[in-house]
Amino acid sequence: MVSFILKRMGLMFIILFLVSVIIFSLVNVLPGDPALLILGQEASPEAVETLRQEMGLNDPLYVQYFRWVTDVLHGDLGNSYVDNTAVTEILMQKIPVTLELTVISFLIAFFISIPAGIISASRKGTLLDYTSTLFALSGVSIPPFFLGILLIFIFAIGLGWFAPSGYVPFAQDPVQSLLLMILPAVTVGIRLSAELTRMLRSSLLEVLQSDYIRTGYAKGLRERGVIFGHALRNALIPVITVSGLQVGTFLGGAVITETIFAVPGLGQLVVNSILTRDFPVVQGAVMFMAFAVVFINFVVDLLYSFLDPRIKLAGGTK
Amino acid sequence: MELIKVGGIQKEKAISPRKTMFKTMMKRFFQNKLAVVAGIFIVILIFMALFAPVIAPHDPSEQDYSKILKAPSAEHWFGTDEIGRDIFSRVIFGARVSLQAGLISVGIALSIGIPVGLISGFYRGAVDEIIMRITDALLSFPSLVLALALAAVLGAGLENAMMAIGIVLTPNFIRLIRAEVLAHREREYVEAAKASGLRDWRVILIHIFPNTLAPIMVQATLAIASAIISEASLSYLGLGTQPPTPSWGAMLSAGQGYLSDAPWIAICPGIFIFLTVISINLFGDGVRDMLDPKLK
Questions:
Q1: pTM score, two decimals?
Q2: SS3 for A79?
Q3: Which of A187, A309, B92, B146 would you call most buried, defined as having the most Cβ atoms within 10 angstroms of its Cβ?
């Protein structure tokens, strides 16, 4: 077990190193001179050159990379070119917003997908199953920006139940914050729930064919007892794994959703910083997202082996 | 073999196994009614894209300031936008952009993914290890974020958006093809081909590659759907197709500001993106069941 964890950690560090190289390379080939961006188009060429020297932009790329990585490891992600605020400070403001969206979206996803998956699997081939399967397929196929716009059109403009956009921090006004978060969270949550419903349905169908389920029925247990007492617990294991692995898809969806609903989170930050060529912010935000995905995948890998002891750990000594 | 009656005597009629397999596959596909309906919709869409100038009742870029924000009518089936352009014509021309984006992006991903995946799976060792770690790193980025960053690096525009989406889709193909090659490389027919003295590239191309085609085709079909969503997303954010070329994503973005006065501007292209993507997904499911029911 220990060797498995060490091996996975080693792998995680290699991936993180490669991720950092990719981000650094990407951002450094983005068109636009950072010195010119800070000083403005009116700045004299001498002033721009001096600033380039000061910022070390004339150094070879590998020198710039190692300087950047060293700073990152010391918790310094640099300052925004737009308003000189520290990137870590900006991230600290944005992360809670996206975290709130994440928690509510996942709650909505579980709330929809668990009953839908159970009904679909236990009533296989019925109208309920087809409806649930069609819902799952539609949820995967509807682009988040279209779903978001539809929700605004129906629930904000048509029925007037929610505001079409905006954000209030949870600590400031929890009720208002939740009300403003519902439409964006449903937008991302629907897609998640579609994926999870598909996963739970197929996983539950497989479990329901197991011998121990037949034994359950033979003992005289009712369907409800068999599903909730025995089948669901095992069927949920792959679902938990998949929801962990969905973090990347979720963050991609958050980029669009936060833009539609003007939610000032990480997603909106990435879009705005790319559009304004604010390199340090792009680097910091994308790096954080990729780190989150790698780390969560690592935790899910470990959790999976704990939850299902049948999983043989590669390189492990179980 | 099939038994037929000729002049009262039963005779065996020889049917080639390939023909029987094709018939079985077609039968399997046509049993999936949803996939057939989806296929018909895709054919209509391709027809729309190919003959857009003939089908579209108006010029998609023609502005008519006397007909700003007009609701759907007999003259303008899907209404008009904020500068009096016909939405129906723009949706028809938008199909060109979306299908082009879907097909070319996946084409780019396949042209990189197939050779890299084949080499990685066949040779294993250090090359495989390096390729897999780079693939892992690329898959760690939320795909839209990576596409967005690449599109920003390459510059806004449809060609660059397609390139960015193609690069983002590539790691998935590398992984799939590598896994398929790994499943085949130890089989007896591959051993036999190697033992007969064939060069590696012939073993890979003639013997292994054809056996990996079924899952590649299924994945490629489904990837077209996700490429269409990605192109529309980039266009929605302003980094994809640039005006005045009509693109469904950009139309949705422009229409969002007029949701209370003229919802048709955003909703009509949105419905088309949804129908296109769900049709491709259903069609892809049908192709999967047709090629290999075990994959279901």
A1: 0.87
A2: strand
A3: A187
